[in-house]
Q: What sequence folds into this?
Protein backbone atom coordinates (compact mmCIF):
# COMPACT_ATOMS: atom_id res chain seq x y z
CA UNK A 1 0.00 0.00 0.00
CA UNK A 2 1.36 3.41 -0.91
CA UNK A 3 1.19 6.61 1.15
CA UNK A 4 -1.62 7.91 -1.05
CA UNK A 5 -3.65 4.76 -0.44
CA UNK A 6 -3.32 5.16 3.33
CA UNK A 7 -4.22 8.84 3.13
CA UNK A 8 -7.29 8.07 0.99
CA UNK A 9 -8.40 5.32 3.36
CA UNK A 10 -8.05 7.64 6.36
CA UNK A 11 -9.94 10.43 4.60
CA UNK A 12 -12.72 8.02 3.63
CA UNK A 13 -12.99 6.71 7.17
CA UNK A 14 -13.14 10.27 8.45
CA UNK A 15 -15.86 11.18 5.93
CA UNK A 16 -17.81 8.10 6.93
CA UNK A 17 -17.47 9.08 10.60
CA UNK A 18 -18.77 12.57 9.89
CA UNK A 19 -21.73 11.18 7.92
CA UNK A 20 -22.52 8.91 10.85
CA UNK A 21 -23.24 12.00 12.95
CA UNK A 22 -26.25 13.04 10.84
CA UNK A 23 -28.94 11.37 13.02
CA UNK A 24 -27.64 13.35 15.99
CA UNK A 25 -28.81 16.56 14.29
CA UNK A 26 -32.32 15.62 15.32
CA UNK A 27 -33.85 16.67 12.01
CA UNK A 28 -36.24 14.02 10.74
CA UNK A 29 -36.35 15.66 7.32
CA UNK A 30 -32.59 15.56 6.79
CA UNK A 31 -32.33 12.10 8.25
CA UNK A 32 -34.86 10.84 5.74
CA UNK A 33 -32.97 12.48 2.88
CA UNK A 34 -29.78 11.01 4.34
CA UNK A 35 -31.30 7.52 4.23
CA UNK A 36 -32.22 8.02 0.58
CA UNK A 37 -28.74 9.27 -0.27
CA UNK A 38 -26.85 6.42 1.42
CA UNK A 39 -29.27 3.91 -0.03
CA UNK A 40 -28.69 5.16 -3.58
CA UNK A 41 -24.97 5.48 -2.92
CA UNK A 42 -24.76 1.81 -2.02
CA UNK A 43 -26.98 0.82 -4.97
CA UNK A 44 -25.42 3.03 -7.63
CA UNK A 45 -21.82 2.45 -6.56
CA UNK A 46 -22.20 -1.32 -6.57
CA UNK A 47 -24.10 -1.12 -9.86
CA UNK A 48 -21.20 0.76 -11.42
CA UNK A 49 -18.66 -1.77 -10.14
CA UNK A 50 -20.11 -4.17 -12.69
CA UNK A 51 -21.63 -1.96 -15.35
CA UNK A 52 -18.82 0.63 -15.42
CA UNK A 53 -16.16 -1.65 -16.84
CA UNK A 54 -18.41 -4.06 -18.78
CA UNK A 55 -20.85 -1.47 -20.20
CA UNK A 56 -23.68 -3.92 -19.53
CA UNK A 57 -26.70 -1.90 -18.37
CA UNK A 58 -28.48 -3.88 -15.66
CA UNK A 59 -32.08 -3.03 -14.82
CA UNK A 60 -32.30 -5.82 -12.26
CA UNK A 61 -31.71 -3.69 -9.17
CA UNK A 62 -35.40 -3.76 -8.26
CA UNK A 63 -35.47 -7.56 -8.44
CA UNK A 64 -32.63 -7.97 -5.96
CA UNK A 65 -33.91 -5.14 -3.78
CA UNK A 66 -37.40 -6.63 -3.69
CA UNK A 67 -36.07 -10.04 -2.74
CA UNK A 68 -34.22 -8.40 0.14
CA UNK A 69 -37.31 -6.62 1.46
CA UNK A 70 -39.24 -9.88 1.35
CA UNK A 71 -36.51 -11.69 3.28
CA UNK A 72 -37.03 -9.18 6.08
CA UNK A 73 -40.81 -9.20 5.67
CA UNK A 74 -40.99 -12.98 6.00
CA UNK A 75 -38.31 -13.49 8.62
CA UNK A 76 -38.27 -10.56 11.03
CA UNK A 77 -40.49 -12.28 13.58
CA UNK A 78 -38.42 -15.45 13.80
CA UNK A 79 -34.82 -14.51 13.07
CA UNK A 80 -32.46 -11.81 14.35
CA UNK A 81 -32.31 -8.86 11.99
CA UNK A 82 -28.58 -9.14 11.19
CA UNK A 83 -29.07 -12.70 9.98
CA UNK A 84 -31.82 -11.51 7.61
CA UNK A 85 -29.36 -9.10 6.04
CA UNK A 86 -26.95 -12.01 5.65
CA UNK A 87 -29.59 -14.24 4.07
CA UNK A 88 -30.55 -11.42 1.70
CA UNK A 89 -26.88 -11.01 0.74
CA UNK A 90 -26.57 -14.69 -0.14
CA UNK A 91 -29.92 -14.85 -1.96
CA UNK A 92 -29.09 -11.72 -3.96
CA UNK A 93 -25.71 -13.15 -4.93
CA UNK A 94 -27.20 -16.51 -5.93
CA UNK A 95 -29.96 -14.88 -7.97
CA UNK A 96 -27.38 -12.67 -9.67
CA UNK A 97 -25.23 -15.69 -10.44
CA UNK A 98 -28.19 -17.47 -12.04
CA UNK A 99 -29.14 -14.41 -14.06
CA UNK A 100 -25.51 -13.94 -15.01
CA UNK A 101 -25.07 -17.51 -16.19
CA UNK A 102 -28.25 -17.24 -18.23
CA UNK A 103 -27.63 -13.86 -19.82
CA UNK A 104 -24.07 -12.62 -19.75
CA UNK A 105 -23.24 -14.51 -22.90
CA UNK A 106 -25.94 -12.45 -24.59
CA UNK A 107 -25.09 -9.17 -26.19
CA UNK A 108 -25.81 -5.92 -24.40
CA UNK A 109 -29.35 -5.13 -25.49
CA UNK A 110 -30.70 -8.58 -24.65
CA UNK A 111 -29.11 -8.30 -21.26
CA UNK A 112 -30.92 -5.01 -20.58
CA UNK A 113 -34.27 -6.45 -21.54
CA UNK A 114 -33.74 -9.66 -19.62
CA UNK A 115 -32.83 -7.86 -16.41
CA UNK A 116 -35.87 -5.61 -16.70
CA UNK A 117 -38.05 -8.64 -17.33
CA UNK A 118 -36.53 -10.42 -14.37
CA UNK A 119 -37.77 -7.84 -11.87
CA UNK A 120 -41.22 -8.06 -13.38
CA UNK A 121 -41.14 -11.86 -13.32
CA UNK A 122 -40.13 -12.08 -9.66
CA UNK A 123 -42.82 -9.54 -8.79
CA UNK A 124 -45.49 -11.54 -10.60
CA UNK A 125 -44.41 -14.76 -8.93
CA UNK A 126 -44.57 -13.23 -5.47
CA UNK A 127 -47.92 -11.60 -6.20
CA UNK A 128 -49.25 -14.95 -7.34
CA UNK A 129 -47.95 -16.77 -4.24
CA UNK A 130 -49.40 -14.09 -1.99
CA UNK A 131 -52.77 -14.15 -3.71
CA UNK A 132 -52.96 -17.89 -3.15
CA UNK A 133 -52.33 -17.37 0.54
CA UNK A 134 -54.94 -14.62 0.54
CA UNK A 135 -52.66 -11.72 1.49
CA UNK A 136 -51.80 -8.61 -0.49
CA UNK A 137 -48.69 -7.65 1.41
CA UNK A 138 -46.72 -8.06 4.62
CA UNK A 139 -46.51 -5.94 7.74
CA UNK A 140 -42.95 -5.32 8.89
CA UNK A 141 -43.32 -4.09 12.44
CA UNK A 142 -40.00 -3.77 14.19
CA UNK A 143 -38.41 -1.45 16.73
CA UNK A 144 -35.72 -0.51 14.21
CA UNK A 145 -35.57 3.27 13.97
CA UNK A 146 -34.82 5.48 10.99
CA UNK A 147 -31.45 6.28 12.55
CA UNK A 148 -30.62 2.56 12.83
CA UNK A 149 -31.49 2.12 9.17
CA UNK A 150 -29.33 5.09 8.28
CA UNK A 151 -26.35 3.69 10.16
CA UNK A 152 -26.72 0.23 8.68
CA UNK A 153 -26.97 1.60 5.15
CA UNK A 154 -24.01 3.86 5.79
CA UNK A 155 -21.97 0.86 6.92
CA UNK A 156 -23.11 -1.00 3.80
CA UNK A 157 -22.15 1.92 1.56
CA UNK A 158 -18.75 2.04 3.28
CA UNK A 159 -18.34 -1.67 2.68
CA UNK A 160 -19.24 -1.19 -0.99
CA UNK A 161 -16.55 1.44 -1.38
CA UNK A 162 -14.02 -0.77 0.35
CA UNK A 163 -15.00 -3.72 -1.83
CA UNK A 164 -14.83 -1.54 -4.93
CA UNK A 165 -11.42 -0.29 -3.97
CA UNK A 166 -10.17 -3.82 -3.36
CA UNK A 167 -11.72 -5.15 -6.59
CA UNK A 168 -10.15 -2.25 -8.48
CA UNK A 169 -6.75 -3.48 -7.32
CA UNK A 170 -7.49 -7.15 -7.89
CA UNK A 171 -7.00 -9.43 -10.88
CA UNK A 172 -10.78 -9.65 -11.18
CA UNK A 173 -11.10 -5.88 -11.47
CA UNK A 174 -8.32 -5.78 -14.05
CA UNK A 175 -9.92 -8.63 -15.99
CA UNK A 176 -13.22 -6.74 -16.12
CA UNK A 177 -11.50 -3.62 -17.46
CA UNK A 178 -9.89 -5.70 -20.21
CA UNK A 179 -13.23 -7.33 -21.01
CA UNK A 180 -14.87 -3.90 -21.20
CA UNK A 181 -12.19 -2.70 -23.61
CA UNK A 182 -12.06 -5.72 -25.90
CA UNK A 183 -13.58 -9.05 -25.04
CA UNK A 184 -11.69 -10.86 -27.81
CA UNK A 185 -8.37 -9.68 -26.43
CA UNK A 186 -9.51 -10.73 -22.96
CA UNK A 187 -10.33 -14.25 -24.09
CA UNK A 188 -7.02 -14.65 -25.92
CA UNK A 189 -5.16 -13.33 -22.88
CA UNK A 190 -6.39 -16.24 -20.78
CA UNK A 191 -9.36 -14.57 -19.08
CA UNK A 192 -12.44 -16.66 -18.39
CA UNK A 193 -14.78 -13.85 -19.37
CA UNK A 194 -18.06 -15.54 -18.43
CA UNK A 195 -16.85 -16.43 -14.94
CA UNK A 196 -15.38 -12.97 -14.35
CA UNK A 197 -18.60 -11.27 -15.36
CA UNK A 198 -20.78 -13.55 -13.26
CA UNK A 199 -18.57 -13.10 -10.19
CA UNK A 200 -18.68 -9.35 -10.43
CA UNK A 201 -22.41 -9.25 -11.19
CA UNK A 202 -22.97 -10.98 -7.86
CA UNK A 203 -21.71 -7.87 -6.05
CA UNK A 204 -24.52 -5.46 -7.06
CA UNK A 205 -27.03 -8.31 -6.70
CA UNK A 206 -25.95 -8.95 -3.15
CA UNK A 207 -25.73 -5.28 -2.21
CA UNK A 208 -29.18 -4.46 -3.61
CA UNK A 209 -30.73 -7.37 -1.71
CA UNK A 210 -29.07 -6.23 1.53
CA UNK A 211 -30.28 -2.68 0.90
CA UNK A 212 -33.82 -3.99 0.50
CA UNK A 213 -33.55 -6.06 3.68
CA UNK A 214 -32.30 -3.10 5.69
CA UNK A 215 -34.92 -0.71 4.30
CA UNK A 216 -37.94 -2.98 4.73
CA UNK A 217 -38.73 -1.85 8.31
CA UNK A 218 -38.97 1.73 7.04
CA UNK A 219 -41.89 0.82 4.79
CA UNK A 220 -43.85 -0.86 7.62
CA UNK A 221 -46.07 -2.51 5.00
CA UNK A 222 -44.57 -4.09 1.89
CA UNK A 223 -46.27 -5.41 -1.22
CA UNK A 224 -44.82 -6.50 -4.57
CA UNK A 225 -45.60 -3.29 -6.45
CA UNK A 226 -43.61 -1.33 -3.87
CA UNK A 227 -40.77 -3.77 -3.27
CA UNK A 228 -40.15 -4.46 -6.96
CA UNK A 229 -40.90 -1.00 -8.35
CA UNK A 230 -39.02 -0.80 -11.69
CA UNK A 231 -38.55 2.94 -11.07
CA UNK A 232 -35.78 2.04 -8.62
CA UNK A 233 -33.72 0.28 -11.29
CA UNK A 234 -33.95 3.30 -13.57
CA UNK A 235 -33.08 5.75 -10.80
CA UNK A 236 -29.94 3.79 -10.00
CA UNK A 237 -28.82 3.73 -13.64
CA UNK A 238 -29.48 7.46 -14.02
CA UNK A 239 -27.58 8.40 -10.89
CA UNK A 240 -24.61 6.19 -11.68
CA UNK A 241 -24.38 7.47 -15.25
CA UNK A 242 -24.92 11.07 -14.17
CA UNK A 243 -21.94 10.87 -11.85
CA UNK A 244 -19.89 8.61 -14.07
CA UNK A 245 -19.66 4.84 -13.87
CA UNK A 246 -16.00 4.77 -14.80
CA UNK A 247 -14.73 5.67 -11.34
CA UNK A 248 -15.43 4.27 -7.92
CA UNK A 249 -16.64 7.59 -6.50
CA UNK A 250 -18.34 8.65 -9.75
CA UNK A 251 -21.87 7.48 -8.85
CA UNK A 252 -21.71 9.36 -5.54
CA UNK A 253 -21.24 12.57 -7.52
CA UNK A 254 -24.54 11.76 -9.25
CA UNK A 255 -26.47 10.50 -6.24
CA UNK A 256 -26.29 13.60 -4.06
CA UNK A 257 -27.51 16.27 -6.53
CA UNK A 258 -30.04 13.88 -8.05
CA UNK A 259 -31.57 12.94 -4.70
CA UNK A 260 -31.87 16.57 -3.60
CA UNK A 261 -33.28 17.66 -6.95
CA UNK A 262 -35.61 14.69 -7.07
CA UNK A 263 -36.89 15.41 -3.58
CA UNK A 264 -38.01 18.91 -4.56
CA UNK A 265 -39.26 17.98 -8.03
CA UNK A 266 -41.32 15.01 -6.91
CA UNK A 267 -42.99 17.01 -4.15
CA UNK A 268 -43.85 19.83 -6.59
CA UNK A 269 -44.94 17.60 -9.50
CA UNK A 270 -46.00 14.30 -7.94
CA UNK A 271 -47.94 13.24 -11.06
CA UNK A 272 -45.07 13.71 -13.52
CA UNK A 273 -42.22 11.83 -11.81
CA UNK A 274 -42.01 9.02 -14.36
CA UNK A 275 -42.05 11.48 -17.24
CA UNK A 276 -39.33 13.58 -15.62
CA UNK A 277 -37.27 10.50 -14.94
CA UNK A 278 -37.47 9.57 -18.60
CA UNK A 279 -36.42 13.04 -19.66
CA UNK A 280 -33.53 12.97 -17.21
CA UNK A 281 -32.45 9.62 -18.64
CA UNK A 282 -32.38 10.94 -22.21
CA UNK A 283 -30.61 14.16 -21.28
CA UNK A 284 -27.88 12.31 -19.41
CA UNK A 285 -27.29 9.70 -22.07
CA UNK A 286 -27.08 12.34 -24.81
CA UNK A 287 -25.22 15.12 -23.06
CA UNK A 288 -23.08 13.35 -20.46
CA UNK A 289 -22.39 9.83 -21.66
CA UNK A 290 -19.48 9.48 -19.26
CA UNK A 291 -21.03 11.49 -16.45
CA UNK A 292 -19.72 14.51 -14.51
CA UNK A 293 -16.54 12.64 -13.71
CA UNK A 294 -15.93 11.76 -17.35
CA UNK A 295 -16.48 15.41 -18.24
CA UNK A 296 -13.93 16.49 -15.65
CA UNK A 297 -11.40 13.97 -16.96
CA UNK A 298 -11.95 15.25 -20.47
CA UNK A 299 -11.38 18.85 -19.43
CA UNK A 300 -8.28 17.86 -17.50
CA UNK A 301 -6.89 15.91 -20.44
CA UNK A 302 -7.40 18.85 -22.76
CA UNK A 303 -5.72 21.22 -20.35
CA UNK A 304 -2.73 18.94 -19.78
CA UNK A 305 0.36 19.67 -21.91
CA UNK A 306 0.86 17.23 -24.75
CA UNK A 307 3.40 14.50 -24.25
CA UNK A 308 6.49 15.41 -26.32
CA UNK A 309 7.28 11.76 -27.02
CA UNK A 310 3.84 11.22 -28.51
CA UNK A 311 4.70 13.48 -31.43
CA UNK A 312 7.93 11.65 -32.17
CA UNK B 1 12.63 -37.20 -31.85
CA UNK B 2 10.90 -34.55 -29.79
CA UNK B 3 7.14 -34.21 -29.86
CA UNK B 4 6.26 -31.21 -32.04
CA UNK B 5 5.06 -28.14 -30.18
CA UNK B 6 1.99 -28.05 -32.38
CA UNK B 7 0.40 -30.60 -34.68
CA UNK B 8 -2.63 -30.21 -36.91
CA UNK B 9 -4.27 -33.45 -38.03
CA UNK B 10 -6.81 -33.14 -40.84
CA UNK B 11 -8.13 -29.89 -39.45
CA UNK B 12 -11.16 -28.73 -41.39
CA UNK B 13 -13.40 -25.69 -41.11
CA UNK B 14 -16.62 -25.19 -43.02
CA UNK B 15 -18.60 -21.96 -43.13
CA UNK B 16 -21.91 -23.19 -44.50
CA UNK B 17 -21.00 -24.57 -47.91
CA UNK B 18 -17.54 -22.97 -48.01
CA UNK B 19 -14.63 -25.16 -46.92
CA UNK B 20 -12.27 -22.46 -45.63
CA UNK B 21 -9.73 -24.95 -44.26
CA UNK B 22 -9.55 -28.40 -45.78
CA UNK B 23 -7.84 -31.30 -43.96
CA UNK B 24 -4.82 -29.27 -42.91
CA UNK B 25 -2.00 -31.38 -41.49
CA UNK B 26 1.38 -30.05 -40.35
CA UNK B 27 3.78 -30.02 -37.42
CA UNK B 28 5.71 -27.19 -35.86
CA UNK B 29 8.88 -28.24 -34.06
CA UNK B 30 10.32 -26.43 -31.09
CA UNK B 31 12.41 -23.30 -31.83
CA UNK B 32 11.06 -23.30 -35.36
CA UNK B 33 9.58 -20.39 -37.27
CA UNK B 34 6.94 -21.69 -39.64
CA UNK B 35 5.57 -19.46 -42.36
CA UNK B 36 1.92 -20.01 -43.24
CA UNK B 37 1.51 -18.43 -46.63
CA UNK B 38 -0.91 -18.31 -49.51
CA UNK B 39 -3.04 -15.94 -51.56
CA UNK B 40 -5.82 -13.79 -50.06
CA UNK B 41 -8.71 -15.78 -48.75
CA UNK B 42 -6.79 -19.06 -48.78
CA UNK B 43 -7.64 -19.80 -45.14
CA UNK B 44 -4.55 -18.65 -43.22
CA UNK B 45 -6.34 -16.52 -40.64
CA UNK B 46 -9.00 -19.18 -40.26
CA UNK B 47 -6.27 -21.71 -39.48
CA UNK B 48 -4.83 -19.35 -36.86
CA UNK B 49 -8.33 -18.91 -35.42
CA UNK B 50 -8.74 -22.67 -35.19
CA UNK B 51 -5.41 -23.11 -33.42
CA UNK B 52 -6.09 -20.29 -30.94
CA UNK B 53 -9.64 -21.46 -30.29
CA UNK B 54 -11.33 -18.34 -31.68
CA UNK B 55 -13.16 -20.73 -34.01
CA UNK B 56 -14.14 -24.35 -33.43
CA UNK B 57 -13.01 -26.95 -35.94
CA UNK B 58 -15.56 -28.80 -38.09
CA UNK B 59 -13.27 -31.83 -38.04
CA UNK B 60 -9.75 -32.96 -37.24
CA UNK B 61 -7.50 -32.44 -34.28
CA UNK B 62 -5.12 -29.83 -32.88
CA UNK B 63 -2.41 -31.11 -30.54
CA UNK B 64 -0.19 -29.05 -28.28
CA UNK B 65 2.87 -31.08 -27.33
CA UNK B 66 0.91 -34.19 -28.20
CA UNK B 67 -2.17 -33.49 -26.12
CA UNK B 68 -5.41 -32.46 -27.79
CA UNK B 69 -6.62 -28.88 -27.36
CA UNK B 70 -9.19 -29.06 -30.14
CA UNK B 71 -12.27 -28.51 -28.01
CA UNK B 72 -10.81 -26.24 -25.35
CA UNK B 73 -12.17 -22.71 -25.02
CA UNK B 74 -9.82 -19.99 -26.27
CA UNK B 75 -8.83 -18.75 -22.82
CA UNK B 76 -7.65 -22.22 -21.84
CA UNK B 77 -5.66 -22.59 -25.02
CA UNK B 78 -3.97 -19.34 -24.12
CA UNK B 79 -3.25 -20.62 -20.63
CA UNK B 80 -1.72 -23.75 -22.08
CA UNK B 81 0.77 -21.55 -23.89
CA UNK B 82 -0.49 -20.34 -27.27
CA UNK B 83 -0.62 -16.58 -27.66
CA UNK B 84 -1.69 -14.67 -30.73
CA UNK B 85 -1.81 -11.28 -32.37
CA UNK B 86 -4.62 -10.22 -34.69
CA UNK B 87 -4.55 -9.40 -38.37
CA UNK B 88 -6.06 -6.03 -37.44
CA UNK B 89 -4.22 -4.79 -34.34
CA UNK B 90 -6.30 -5.00 -31.18
CA UNK B 91 -5.22 -2.90 -28.23
CA UNK B 92 -7.06 -1.88 -25.08
CA UNK B 93 -8.02 1.75 -25.76
CA UNK B 94 -8.76 2.86 -22.21
CA UNK B 95 -5.42 1.68 -20.88
CA UNK B 96 -1.86 2.90 -20.99
CA UNK B 97 0.76 1.15 -23.11
CA UNK B 98 2.20 -0.49 -20.01
CA UNK B 99 -1.21 -1.75 -18.84
CA UNK B 100 -1.78 -3.20 -22.31
CA UNK B 101 1.29 -5.34 -21.85
CA UNK B 102 0.49 -6.19 -18.23
CA UNK B 103 -2.86 -7.48 -19.54
CA UNK B 104 -0.96 -10.23 -21.31
CA UNK B 105 1.05 -11.12 -18.23
CA UNK B 106 -1.63 -11.67 -15.61
CA UNK B 107 -3.95 -14.44 -16.78
CA UNK B 108 -2.06 -16.44 -19.39
CA UNK B 109 0.41 -19.27 -19.53
CA UNK B 110 2.88 -17.93 -16.99
CA UNK B 111 1.06 -15.69 -14.52
CA UNK B 112 2.49 -12.64 -12.86
CA UNK B 113 0.85 -9.95 -10.78
CA UNK B 114 1.57 -6.60 -9.16
CA UNK B 115 5.12 -5.38 -9.12
CA UNK B 116 6.42 -8.49 -10.87
CA UNK B 117 3.95 -8.07 -13.75
CA UNK B 118 4.86 -4.40 -14.15
CA UNK B 119 8.61 -4.93 -14.23
CA UNK B 120 8.13 -7.83 -16.62
CA UNK B 121 5.94 -5.65 -18.88
CA UNK B 122 8.53 -2.86 -18.74
CA UNK B 123 11.29 -5.21 -19.79
CA UNK B 124 9.15 -6.44 -22.70
CA UNK B 125 8.45 -2.88 -23.80
CA UNK B 126 12.19 -2.34 -23.90
CA UNK B 127 12.53 -5.64 -25.77
CA UNK B 128 10.22 -4.47 -28.58
CA UNK B 129 11.70 -0.98 -28.72
CA UNK B 130 9.17 0.98 -26.69
CA UNK B 131 11.36 1.88 -23.73
CA UNK B 132 9.97 4.84 -21.79
CA UNK B 133 6.63 4.83 -23.61
CA UNK B 134 4.74 2.78 -21.05
CA UNK B 135 2.78 5.77 -19.74
CA UNK B 136 1.37 6.78 -23.14
CA UNK B 137 -2.23 6.16 -24.20
CA UNK B 138 -2.48 3.74 -27.08
CA UNK B 139 -4.22 6.43 -29.15
CA UNK B 140 -0.98 8.42 -29.13
CA UNK B 141 1.07 5.70 -30.81
CA UNK B 142 2.28 5.40 -34.38
CA UNK B 143 1.10 2.36 -36.33
CA UNK B 144 4.28 0.34 -35.91
CA UNK B 145 4.29 1.11 -32.19
CA UNK B 146 0.76 -0.29 -31.82
CA UNK B 147 2.09 -3.46 -33.44
CA UNK B 148 4.96 -3.49 -30.98
CA UNK B 149 2.59 -3.17 -28.03
CA UNK B 150 0.55 -6.10 -29.28
CA UNK B 151 3.70 -8.16 -29.70
CA UNK B 152 4.85 -7.30 -26.18
CA UNK B 153 1.43 -8.28 -24.86
CA UNK B 154 1.53 -11.74 -26.40
CA UNK B 155 5.11 -12.24 -25.25
CA UNK B 156 4.14 -11.35 -21.69
CA UNK B 157 2.82 -14.77 -20.73
CA UNK B 158 5.95 -16.64 -21.93
CA UNK B 159 3.99 -18.61 -24.55
CA UNK B 160 5.27 -21.89 -25.96
CA UNK B 161 3.93 -20.90 -29.35
CA UNK B 162 3.37 -17.48 -30.88
CA UNK B 163 0.84 -16.93 -33.64
CA UNK B 164 1.55 -13.76 -35.61
CA UNK B 165 -1.09 -12.98 -38.22
CA UNK B 166 0.41 -10.56 -40.76
CA UNK B 167 2.29 -8.75 -38.07
CA UNK B 168 4.39 -6.98 -40.71
CA UNK B 169 1.49 -5.87 -42.90
CA UNK B 170 1.01 -2.17 -43.42
CA UNK B 171 4.54 -1.14 -42.47
CA UNK B 172 6.52 1.24 -44.68
CA UNK B 173 9.88 -0.01 -46.06
CA UNK B 174 11.96 1.39 -43.18
CA UNK B 175 9.55 0.05 -40.57
CA UNK B 176 9.51 -3.28 -42.36
CA UNK B 177 13.24 -3.70 -41.85
CA UNK B 178 12.81 -2.83 -38.16
CA UNK B 179 9.93 -5.31 -37.90
CA UNK B 180 11.83 -8.10 -39.62
CA UNK B 181 14.84 -7.71 -37.35
CA UNK B 182 12.56 -7.64 -34.31
CA UNK B 183 11.01 -10.97 -35.28
CA UNK B 184 14.44 -12.30 -36.18
CA UNK B 185 15.54 -11.48 -32.66
CA UNK B 186 12.61 -13.49 -31.30
CA UNK B 187 13.72 -16.40 -33.44
CA UNK B 188 17.25 -16.05 -32.06
CA UNK B 189 15.73 -16.29 -28.57
CA UNK B 190 14.56 -19.75 -29.59
CA UNK B 191 10.86 -18.96 -29.75
CA UNK B 192 8.47 -21.17 -31.67
CA UNK B 193 6.39 -19.08 -34.07
CA UNK B 194 3.78 -19.48 -36.77
CA UNK B 195 3.96 -16.52 -39.05
CA UNK B 196 1.23 -15.64 -41.55
CA UNK B 197 2.89 -13.37 -44.04
CA UNK B 198 2.64 -11.94 -47.55
CA UNK B 199 5.98 -10.16 -47.60
CA UNK B 200 8.37 -12.45 -49.49
CA UNK B 201 11.54 -10.87 -48.06
CA UNK B 202 10.26 -11.56 -44.60
CA UNK B 203 9.39 -15.15 -45.43
CA UNK B 204 12.82 -15.80 -46.91
CA UNK B 205 14.73 -14.28 -44.04
CA UNK B 206 12.58 -15.44 -41.13
CA UNK B 207 11.08 -18.84 -41.83
CA UNK B 208 12.68 -22.22 -41.27
CA UNK B 209 9.82 -23.96 -43.02
CA UNK B 210 6.73 -22.90 -44.91
CA UNK B 211 3.29 -24.33 -45.45
CA UNK B 212 1.51 -22.94 -48.48
CA UNK B 213 -2.27 -22.82 -48.62
CA UNK B 214 -4.58 -22.28 -51.56
CA UNK B 215 -8.37 -22.40 -51.27
CA UNK B 216 -8.14 -23.97 -47.84
CA UNK B 217 -5.80 -26.79 -48.84
CA UNK B 218 -2.10 -27.31 -48.23
CA UNK B 219 -0.40 -27.29 -51.62
CA UNK B 220 3.26 -27.28 -50.61
CA UNK B 221 5.52 -27.62 -47.62
CA UNK B 222 9.28 -27.18 -47.19
CA UNK B 223 11.97 -24.55 -46.83
CA UNK B 224 11.20 -21.09 -48.22
CA UNK B 225 13.49 -21.74 -51.22
CA UNK B 226 11.72 -25.00 -52.01
CA UNK B 227 8.17 -23.78 -51.79
CA UNK B 228 8.71 -20.43 -53.49
CA UNK B 229 10.11 -22.17 -56.57
CA UNK B 230 7.39 -24.83 -56.59
CA UNK B 231 5.32 -24.50 -59.79
CA UNK B 232 2.06 -25.20 -57.92
CA UNK B 233 2.80 -22.36 -55.54
CA UNK B 234 3.66 -19.96 -58.34
CA UNK B 235 0.45 -20.92 -60.11
CA UNK B 236 -1.60 -20.38 -56.93
CA UNK B 237 -0.13 -16.93 -56.40
CA UNK B 238 -0.43 -15.79 -59.98
CA UNK B 239 -3.81 -17.37 -60.58
CA UNK B 240 -4.52 -20.26 -62.94
CA UNK B 241 -5.33 -18.04 -65.92
CA UNK B 242 -1.86 -16.53 -66.06
CA UNK B 243 0.02 -19.81 -66.37
N1 LIG C 1 -16.42 -16.10 -39.94
C1 LIG C 1 -16.51 -16.43 -41.26
N2 LIG C 1 -17.70 -16.75 -41.81
C2 LIG C 1 -17.79 -17.08 -43.12
N3 LIG C 1 -16.75 -17.13 -43.95
C3 LIG C 1 -15.53 -16.84 -43.47
C4 LIG C 1 -15.35 -16.47 -42.09
N4 LIG C 1 -14.03 -16.21 -41.88
C5 LIG C 1 -13.43 -16.43 -43.07
N5 LIG C 1 -14.32 -16.79 -44.01
C6 LIG C 1 -13.99 -17.13 -45.41
O1 LIG C 1 -13.02 -18.16 -45.39
C7 LIG C 1 -12.06 -17.93 -46.41
C8 LIG C 1 -10.67 -17.88 -45.81
O2 LIG C 1 -10.55 -16.66 -45.08
P1 LIG C 1 -9.26 -16.28 -44.25
O3 LIG C 1 -9.56 -15.02 -43.53
O4 LIG C 1 -8.82 -17.43 -43.44
O5 LIG C 1 -8.21 -16.01 -45.40
P2 LIG C 1 -6.72 -15.49 -45.29
O6 LIG C 1 -5.87 -16.51 -45.94
O7 LIG C 1 -6.38 -15.08 -43.92
O8 LIG C 1 -6.76 -14.22 -46.25
P3 LIG C 1 -6.00 -12.82 -46.12
O9 LIG C 1 -4.64 -13.02 -46.69
O10 LIG C 1 -6.83 -11.91 -46.97
O11 LIG C 1 -5.99 -12.42 -44.69
C9 LIG C 1 -12.48 -16.68 -47.13
O12 LIG C 1 -13.20 -17.06 -48.28
C10 LIG C 1 -13.36 -15.97 -46.16
O13 LIG C 1 -14.33 -15.22 -46.84
MG1 LIG D 1 -5.89 -13.35 -42.96
A:
Amino acid sequence: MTGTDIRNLCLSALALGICALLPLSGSGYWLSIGVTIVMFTALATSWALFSGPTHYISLATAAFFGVGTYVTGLGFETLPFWSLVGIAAVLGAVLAALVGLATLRLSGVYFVIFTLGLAELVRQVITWVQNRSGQKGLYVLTDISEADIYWMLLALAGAVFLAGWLIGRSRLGFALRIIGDDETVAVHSGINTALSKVLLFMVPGSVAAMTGAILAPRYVYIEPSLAFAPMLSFQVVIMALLGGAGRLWGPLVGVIPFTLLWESISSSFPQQTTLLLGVAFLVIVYLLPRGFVGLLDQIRQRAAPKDPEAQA
Amino acid sequence: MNTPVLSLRNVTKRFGGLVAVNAMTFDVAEHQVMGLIGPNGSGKSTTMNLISGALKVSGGEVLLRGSPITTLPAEQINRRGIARTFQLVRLLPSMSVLENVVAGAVFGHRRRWGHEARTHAESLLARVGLEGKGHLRVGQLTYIDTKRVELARVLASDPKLLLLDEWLAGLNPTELQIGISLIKSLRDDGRTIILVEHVMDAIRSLCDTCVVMASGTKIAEGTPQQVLSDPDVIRAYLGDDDV
In short: The radius of gyration of chain A is 20 Å.
